Amino acid sequence: MGHALFGRDHELDELRVLLAGAAQGRGGLVMFVGEPGIGKTSLADAAAEAAAAMGFRVAWGRAWESGGAPPYFPWMQALGVLACRFPDASSVAPIDAEAARFQVISMVAGELRAASAKAPILIVLDDLHVADLSSLRMLHFVARELRSLKLAIVATRRDVDARLTPEMAAMLAKIAREGRTLELGRLERADVARLVRAEGVRIADDLAVELEPAIWKRARAIRCSSARSCACSSRAPGTRAERRCRSPSASAR
Ligand SMILES: Nc1ncnc2c1ncn2[C@@H]1O[C@H](COP(=O)(O)OP(=O)(O)OP(=O)(O)O)[C@@H](O)[C@H]1O
Ligand SMILES: [Mg+2]
User: Fold this and answer.
1) Which of 3, 45, 89, 129 could join 161 via S-S bond, C-beta 3.0 to 4.6 A?
2) Minimum-distance ligand to the CA of 37?
3) Does the Cβ of 41 fall within 6 Å of ligand 1?
4) Which ligand ends up closest to the CA of 1?
5) Where are the domains of the chain?
6) What is the pTM of this model?
């Protein structure tokens, strides 16, 4: 996978296994879980790139965190990219809400079954911590069918988020049982040093040890200046976690 991602060899291997299986008609689900800025979407990008290179059709759906999105919004986006039909109210029989929801979900699953029979598909569902409950129910339903389809799903979500309701947490736990959940930890010091070098900081190897605190500080600056939130800054000042984040010696493993 061509993307410059450091310290994620295990996760990239898992993605290769997922895509190889889906290409053979044994689909699956991988969910990346972790704190803000830890690299969840970057891994989903790497999956998308690898899948496209293997001839998959790739469709993204991203949950919308600012409110106002209709139910199933991430799925509507993904199905739109795949030119699959998303059922509208008129195609659902006038029955009670739960039965209507089941109809919508099973019709979407049918669309995906038919679409993936033609060519393998990767669906990326990003930021599920802010998805609506209906979208999570749909993912649970579809995830149960994946093992006989040419369909892979990569999903991401933050580990802790104030907007995660108990119902959503329960549904995410059910989804997790249908696939692989990979919790993303912080990068090892050696990978941080490689990342800093890749960002253009030139130092000789024999100076690396001496300069390691400076490398660490520089790495934090890069992470913190990225468009997204910084993993380090999410730690409360003075806590043990925050000290680990600050101190190069404390973070050695
Ligand atoms: N393993 C890595 N190697 C190099 N750069 C990385 C790595 N992981 C993340 N980054 C960089 O860190 C920044 C944040 O990554 P990313 O957007 O993937 O985080 P995220 O976990 O999806 O965050 P959020 O929870 O806010 O969506 C990006 O600029 C990305 O390029
Ligand atoms: Mg992200």
Assistant:
1) 129
2) 1
3) yes
4) 1
5) 9-183, 189-246
6) 0.81
**How do residues 122-176 score in pLDDT, each as one tens digit?**
999 999 999 999 999 999 999 999 999 999 999 999 998 778 889 999 999 999 9
What gap in Å lies between CA 121 and CA 13, rounded to an integer? 19
Pairing mode, strands 28-34 and 180-183: parallel
**Shortest-distance ligand to the CA of residue 32:** 1
pLDDT digits 0-9 by tens, 2-35: 458 999 999 999 999 999 999 999 999 999 999 9
> Phi, psi (5° rounding) for residue 86?
-100, 125
Pocket probe mutation, ligand 1, options 197, 228, 229, 233, max atoms within 8 Å of Cβ: 228
CA 95 to centroid of ligand 1, rounded, Å: 44
Q: Is 196 in the pocket of ligand 1 (CB under 6 A)?
A: no
Q: In this structure, are residues 147 and 28 in contact, taking their beta carbons and an 8 Å threshold?
A: yes
Query: Cα(108)–Cα(71) distance, rounded to whole angstroms?
Result: 13
Fold of 9-183: Rossmann fold (3.40.50)
